[in-house]
């Protein structure tokens, strides 16, 4: 059988090789140039011969009387025609003259399978052929993972739709086993391998009901350390989870410049999470009446008691309203202790809405969030009023440090900051984006410490200021960030890896002696790290080093096609 297959394959390969021969193969010039030359010659000669033919007819000259130029044109026409026919027609001609080598009927199916196997890529890719759906293909995937008989029955039930994938944890009572079964069922359903996506090493019990639903594994993100960051006379080693080369190194350089200049100072000037429901009335007059009621200082104490009854740490600070026709948007602001506080403020808002319904029975609650909060969206209300922790962080960088560590000068940094971060952002119509790359640092720290990465949107609102001080010798640099939304309890902060990063910063968990101080400290560390990142990147741009550094640290030389998972 194998011998016949080899013979069949050799014949087919020979036929394929013959079919691939072109007339241009004998010419060492690139094919596109050769083709362009012969196409030009062919149509030029045809045009010349047609002109000569028309001229002979007008002059009554016999067609068989030809000049030397006519003979040359005819020879050139024949030669170019032969080339073009040979190049484009040889495959068709040879398919008739040299038919495909016959393959025995019994071997044809096996031969096609082997050819497909040889042509298949060694690693899966997004542009691969459609996923295999046959029973044999699914069986091959199943054999790669050894499963018990009990698990095999459950996997089959999930694949057949008899057991919902989301119900595995509750039915099995074992989160790790549920993830493994869901993963195997997914591979069989899709025909795609999840090899390379880790399954082991994560406590799936810890994410149940609060971090992720229907898990099949986890993604690995490297964590680098920038620092020490000298902030408010304390040193911090800042964990940054990122896949962007140069980011940690650049932030580390900024930390070095700040440290050598005596450190940075920070001030937290506001701490309030917001939630803004939208309610509707039958008239705009009634909406305006509720606005006046809520913003009346005489009613604030009553509303505070109702709001604060929902939590030990949630404390109502202010209420601001906006009318839009018959609709009223009510922005509640409250402190939330060491939690980021979205759930806490939402519970308080719900209590208050229930109370208001009794006072205003014609009020319809359209949604507990009306986007006037505004959560996970760039919004002017956040930029102006703030959301979460509002922090300003500053440092004075000595002139010699600017020269030696940052490789630039004070005047260049001040001018670039004005042209790029201020004027350039204004020209672009930026909303809270008057900075170089605050979101880079914010995202990296958020992922490392278990914050909500989507809140990077408003948390990265930042304006970077630079000016020359001390007679132009030194640089004063500051970042103002009105919307840093962080917490040290709840959500992803309780996962082992993220908890370790919080512990590194000394802000793990809740501070029992001074509730809320850990979250506030984390917000200042974020701002201090952004200050370091801004300082370093702006210096790299001013010194013309940005492209060079990224080419060195942000480009991989590995052949990813040969990387085995």
TrEMBL record:
<keyword id="KW-0414">Isoprene biosynthesis</keyword>
<keyword id="KW-0560">Oxidoreductase</keyword>
<dbReference type="InterPro" id="IPR023074">
    <property type="entry name" value="HMG_CoA_Rdtase_cat_sf"/>
</dbReference>
<dbReference type="Pfam" id="PF00368">
    <property type="entry name" value="HMG-CoA_red"/>
</dbReference>
<dbReference type="GO" id="GO:0005789">
    <property type="term" value="C:endoplasmic reticulum membrane"/>
</dbReference>
<keyword id="KW-0812">Transmembrane</keyword>
<dbReference type="GO" id="GO:0009753">
    <property type="term" value="P:response to jasmonic acid"/>
</dbReference>
<dbReference type="GO" id="GO:0016135">
    <property type="term" value="P:saponin biosynthetic process"/>
</dbReference>
<feature type="transmembrane region" description="Helical">
    <location>
        <begin position="31"/>
        <end position="50"/>
    </location>
</feature>
<dbReference type="InterPro" id="IPR023076">
    <property type="entry name" value="HMG_CoA_Rdtase_CS"/>
</dbReference>
<comment type="pathway">
    <text>Metabolic intermediate biosynthesis; (R)-mevalonate biosynthesis; (R)-mevalonate from acetyl-CoA: step 3/3.</text>
</comment>
<keyword id="KW-0256">Endoplasmic reticulum</keyword>
<dbReference type="InterPro" id="IPR009023">
    <property type="entry name" value="HMG_CoA_Rdtase_NAD(P)-bd_sf"/>
</dbReference>
<dbReference type="InterPro" id="IPR009029">
    <property type="entry name" value="HMG_CoA_Rdtase_sub-bd_dom_sf"/>
</dbReference>
<keyword id="KW-1133">Transmembrane helix</keyword>
<dbReference type="InterPro" id="IPR004554">
    <property type="entry name" value="HMG_CoA_Rdtase_eu_arc"/>
</dbReference>
<keyword id="KW-0521">NADP</keyword>
<protein>
    <recommendedName>
        <fullName>3-hydroxy-3-methylglutaryl coenzyme A reductase</fullName>
        <ecNumber>1.1.1.34</ecNumber>
    </recommendedName>
</protein>
<dbReference type="GO" id="GO:0004420">
    <property type="term" value="F:hydroxymethylglutaryl-CoA reductase (NADPH) activity"/>
</dbReference>
<dbReference type="GO" id="GO:0015936">
    <property type="term" value="P:coenzyme A metabolic process"/>
</dbReference>
<keyword id="KW-0472">Membrane</keyword>
<dbReference type="GO" id="GO:0016104">
    <property type="term" value="P:triterpenoid biosynthetic process"/>
</dbReference>
<dbReference type="GO" id="GO:0005778">
    <property type="term" value="C:peroxisomal membrane"/>
</dbReference>
<dbReference type="GO" id="GO:0016126">
    <property type="term" value="P:sterol biosynthetic process"/>
</dbReference>
<dbReference type="InterPro" id="IPR023282">
    <property type="entry name" value="HMG_CoA_Rdtase_N"/>
</dbReference>
<comment type="similarity">
    <text>Belongs to the HMG-CoA reductase family.</text>
</comment>
<feature type="transmembrane region" description="Helical">
    <location>
        <begin position="71"/>
        <end position="93"/>
    </location>
</feature>
<dbReference type="InterPro" id="IPR002202">
    <property type="entry name" value="HMG_CoA_Rdtase"/>
</dbReference>
<keyword id="KW-0325">Glycoprotein</keyword>
